[in-house]
Design goal:
The complex is a heterodimer. By secondary structure, chain A is mainly beta. Helices cover about 5% and strands about 50% of the residues of chain A. Classes of the chains: A mainly beta, B mainly alpha.
């Protein structure tokens, strides 16, 4: 059933002629927006074996739609499976990104606003904020599933493209809408570069221009009552992406925890493809 | 009080989003220095061939495999585009024309964008 669904989506992708030029970031955002009318479908997974906890595998499906040239909207559905425990659906996110400046500048700001409705058992780790730590990953699914967190997340994304490099800085703030908890903060930094600056003159799949390599660094910055690095977790890791011509993009990244509050290693994998002009806009 | 504060933050955010720059015809917006930029690959067949690969990957779904446009997506073989300078087309690829749905391709490295310029300019005019 699952294999059939994947094959079906893959066929749809090939038929639609994917053309995504994706950066291999899992947590950081760049200035890139979805092209208007296009729908990108992504599957992002995170796998880790936290110390004193059971290994888990988290999967998030992401639907990203280019509403306008300056507005991209995304909807996420997340779930996870924990060994010796269970498989659970953990909730959804709705995200919107806006580019206030129409032209390219040396630094390009993007404003990001997201509503999250996630159980505490969520392990998608799409951002790290406040005092998030390895102890959050030790909750059983029954413990984490009993509480749903409704949160507002705002980000300021600053991103630059120069000489083939992309450098992106994200400043994250998050507010729990359920309880009077203080604003929490976090950051994510990403840098990436294609392996070739020029396109080959012949059609090719495994040529260097289709690969992008980079690195990500992200973590929490405490909250309004205790801003800083104390009792926060941080991760860093290399990342690589492969844009298959007329096909999907696959990315991989091992993220290494930088302190005792972090999980040892998080293996991340993503598969994404873009369906062009999903509602037929612009077609004859 | 708590909800009111969130409301104010939401309003401030929306105002910031509303502060978008006006966008007219893109030709008129190209700075003179950019207009005069010359392609480092002008007349190089290999650059055109590389540009053709990039065009097929990134541009053809909107502009058509023949670059004659599809629906509201414009033809790239009009007199206006074909007589534009290399610098003007390069500027458009970098900045896009977001109000009209044309994304920025600044994520493509500069040499790749010049390859695209070489290919688009090689197509020639067509009134189809």
């Amino acid at each position: 059933m699952k294999r059939g669904l994947i094959l079906c989506l893959f066929s749809l992708c090939i038929a639609a002629g994917c053309a995504a030029q994706e950066l291999p970031y899992f947590v950081a955002y760049s200035q890139d927006m979805e092209e208007p009318g296009n729908l990108e479908v992504s599957f992002k997974s995170a796998q880790a074996s936290p110390k004193y906890g059971d290994p888990f595998f988290s999967e998030t499906m992401e639907l990203e739609y280019g509403a306008k040239g300056w507005w991209t909207t995304e909807f996420y559905l997340s779930g996870q499976r924990t060994s010796n425990d269970s498989t659970v659906f953990t909730g959804f996110r709705w995200e919107n990104r806006f580019r206030p400046l129409m032209r390219e500048h040396f630094i390009n700001p993007v404003l990001y606003v997201e509503y999250e409705n996630l159980k505490r058992s969520d392990r998608s780790l799409l951002e790290v904020t406040g005092h998030d730590s390895i102890s959050d990953l030790l909750l059983t699914n029954a413990q984490g599933g009993s509480e749903t967190e409704r949160e507002l997340e705002l980000k300021l994304i600053l991103s630059s493209n120069f000489r083939g490099w992309n450098v992106s800085e994200n400043f994250i703030s998050e507010k729990d809408l359920n309880e009077p908890e203080p604003w929490e903060f976090g950051y994510a930094l990403g840098v990436a570069h294609p392996l070739s600056m020029k396109a080959s003159s012949r059609p090719c799949v495994f040529c260097r221009q289709n690969f992008t390599a980079g690195a990500e660094l992200y973590g929490g910055l405490g909250d309004l009552e205790g801003f800083g690095l104390k009792a926060t977790s941080h991760y860093v890791g290399p990342t690589v992406g492969f844009n298959i011509p007329h096909g999907p993009t696959v990315s991989f990244s091992p993220n290494f925890g930088l302190n005792q509050n972090s999980a040892g290693v998080i293996f991340r994998f993503s598969f994404s493809y873009e369906i062009q002009q999903i509602f037929g806009r612009g077609n004859h | 009080m708590h909800r009111q504060r969130i409301g104010w933050i939401a309003i401030a955010f929306l105002l910031a989003v509303a502060c978008v720059a006006a966008d007219g015809t893109w030709f008129a917006q190209v700075p003179e220095a950019d207009r005069r930029r010359e392609s480092p690959y002008a007349g190089q067949p290999e650059a055109k061939a590389g540009g053709a690969q990039l065009f097929a990957d990134h541009c053809s779904k909107c502009h058509g495999a023949d670059a004659l446009g599809r629906g509201k997506k414009p033809s790239l073989r009009t007199k206006e585009v074909q007589t534009a300078t290399d610098g003007e087309i390069f500027w458009l690829l970098r900045n896009g024309n977001r109000r009209r749905g044309m994304p920025s391709w600044s994520s493509l490295p500069e040499p790749s964008r010049w390859q695209l310029v070489a290919y688009v300019k090689s197509l020639g005019e067509s009134n189809e």
